[in-house]
Amino acid sequence: MNPFDVFLERGFVEQVTDANLIRELFQRGTVTAYIGFDPTAKSLHAGSLVPIMGLAHIQRMGHRPIALVGGGTGLVGDPSGKTEMRQMLAAVAIEENAQALKAQLSRYLDFSEGKALLVNNADWLVELKYIDFLRDIGKHFSVNRMLAAESYRSRLETGLTFIEFNYMLLQAYDFLMLSRRYDCTLQMGGNDQWGNILAGTELVRRVDGRDVHGLTFPLMTTARGEKMGKTHQGAVWLDKDLTSPYDFYQYWINTDDRDVVRFLKLFTFLPMEEIRPLEALTGADLREAKESLAFEATVVTHGREEALKAREAARSVFDSGEGTAEGVPETRLSRARLEAGIPAYVLFEEVGLAVSRGAARRLIDQGGGYVNGKRLSHFDESVTLKDAQDGMILIRAGKKKFHRVRIGD
């Protein structure tokens, strides 16, 4: 199928510069398309999976994706979707994050033999001469049109810094450089990037007389109105050291019924003929579909082996109410600490089952804290070495969040 039609069918398309021209672009031959990722952290999170999956889909259909790491634009900070200026990171932190993102993106895309490209816009932005840039590039931008862009207009009341105002020019310049260096003809991104993408297509047309195109993906929220990739405990990271494969699996298994089919289309590579029949399912019948979503989404990010371990761990603890299956997040605590005893609310906060000790106290007092399947009666009830079974203590928050404590030296 034409990648554009695949995007339409699976729910990836929010806005396009011209649907017919983009469809024709893919029909004419191999297309090089890019998406930028600013290195504001050492890991991307689940909210970044829509653009990542977009790049992966076009590669699977024989086209060439470019993952652009914003080592240069990251020094400025994208104002899109923000009510205030982003925290300014030091250049060394930006570079460290950029290197981490390069390694992370290689799990989704095949960069061998030029099948996909990883580039860093610091290569051309950091060395720019400002006066030359203003004369050669800045002259093509209308301030009135820039202020009409949603990313800028929404910030005028709270304040837009001059450094952020430059961001659109830099992103547009990225498209120009990628067009010249790699024959890139399509930029994709979240819908908050629409103004920046249009600026890039216009700049390439004005400077090089070349027609290039833009496509945006919907900004993902759940059926509950929550931002995609966020939980009450924070972001769901793609780095397994920040969010374990088990917790990643659990994020998807807890998907709202109303989102299951939509997320199967967006976050897995399951063929549509397998997904369509699930649209008629409701209630308990959706449990198998949720497990399929959780498993396939975990395969994409962490590989089949980790997905199998996470699924087996989840089945073990949920089917038995307790268990010690591999894959459940684990913390090692010393024998001496457990001999002395640890108040339950302190332990729950320490291992990440609650965001604070106050939250842990409320959870346990409301009957949501368990040790080895037994409900805790009071928030400061002591968890001790006597609770260990085969060198492990299984603690649970609510019905679905498990953690193992392993007895150390």
Structure in words:
- The chain has 409 residues and is an alpha/beta fold.
- The protein folds into 3 domains: 3-217, 3-Layer(aba) Sandwich (Rossmann fold), CATH 3.40.50; 230-320, Tyrosyl-Transfer RNA Synthetase, CATH 1.10.240; 330-408, Roll (Structural Genomics Hypothetical 15.5 Kd Protein In mrcA-pckA Intergenic Region, Chain A), CATH 3.10.290.
- 43% of the residues lie in helices and 15% in strands.
- The chain has helices spanning 3-10, 19-28, 49-60, 91-105, 122-125, 130-136, 143-148, 150-153, 162-165, 167-182, 194-208, 245-253, 260-267, 272-275, 287-302, 304-320, 335-340, 344-350, 357-365, and strands at 15-16, 32-37, 64-69, 117-120, 184-190, 213-217, 230-231, 234-235, 330-334, 342-343, 369-371, 374-375, 382-383, 392-397, 401-408.
- β11 and β12 form a beta hairpin.
- It is globular, with a radius of gyration of 24 Å.
Give the structure's gist in a few sentences.
By secondary structure, the protein is α/β, with parallel strands linked by helices. The protein has helices at 3-10, 19-28, 49-60, 91-105, 122-125, 130-136, 143-148, 150-153, 162-165, 167-182, 194-208, 245-253, 260-267, 272-275, 287-302, 304-320, 335-340, 344-350, 357-365, and strands at 15-16, 32-37, 64-69, 117-120, 184-190, 213-217, 230-231, 234-235, 330-334, 342-343, 369-371, 374-375, 382-383, 392-397, 401-408.
